[in-house]
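B., you asked whether I could sanity-check this one before it goes into the benchmark set. Here's the sequence:
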Amino acid sequence: MATKLVQLPLIAYHVCLSVPRIPNSLRTQRRVPSANPWSKYTRFKHHPFVCGPICTIKVENQGMGLLEEDEDTIPRTKAKLYQAVEGINRGVFGVSSAKTAEIKGLVEQLEFQNPTENPAFNLEKVNGCWKVIYSTITILGSKRTKLGLRDFITLGDFFQQISVDEGKAVNVIEFSALGLNLMKGQLTIEATFDIASASRVNINYSSSSITPEQLMNVFRKNYELLLSIFNPDGWLEITYVDDTMRIGRDDKGNIFILERSADIFVN
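And here's what the prediction gave me:
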């Protein structure tokens, strides 16, 4: 809830109040105004020309933070968003509808206050390595069972390396196979991109691979299913980006939240 001071419209009072007639004998006794005629009236509420009372009303913050204008609004909203996505494994195995609504509301507040105008024309902001901290991509039910993601395979971090100079993006999804002496591996998906509008880029799938070979053998039977989940082919709208956080929405209706990472991965 945001609080605002509202001066009731003056015109309504002008029709109700009359100006007293000043006797001629007093007309020559005018006081010379000070250099700052407002200096003795604090916040205008005691000034004789302010006819209406000042009242305080509370206006509900609806949806996208339209009334929040404090300088620290973005850092506070980002802190709330980090707290909201904590402990939900990036949402990949689903979250409650209440949690989804909470995250979506915070995302919309940040999107409304995006500090980077025309982000697709300022791609230096997105260059480098990012880690996915939340997305609406989910692996549920039979898909999760087929991919062995209930007990046998554990998902690790999701990274995205963007090279603006090459027009190239590399997505890396890390895995651990518990039945193979805790072997670790990764799915790597390479794609190219080009600017479609001031905020949108087109993404074209190039290639993919799973390393090491033992992990590829685990996924081979359901490789197309795995690729269909993480394939970035389509378009991506960059709806928010600053020095540490990026938010995007794709043509499939998914939301992605990423934080800048210092990690460097090797393909």
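One thing to flag: The chain has two domains: 2-59, 74-260. Otherwise nothing jumped out at me.
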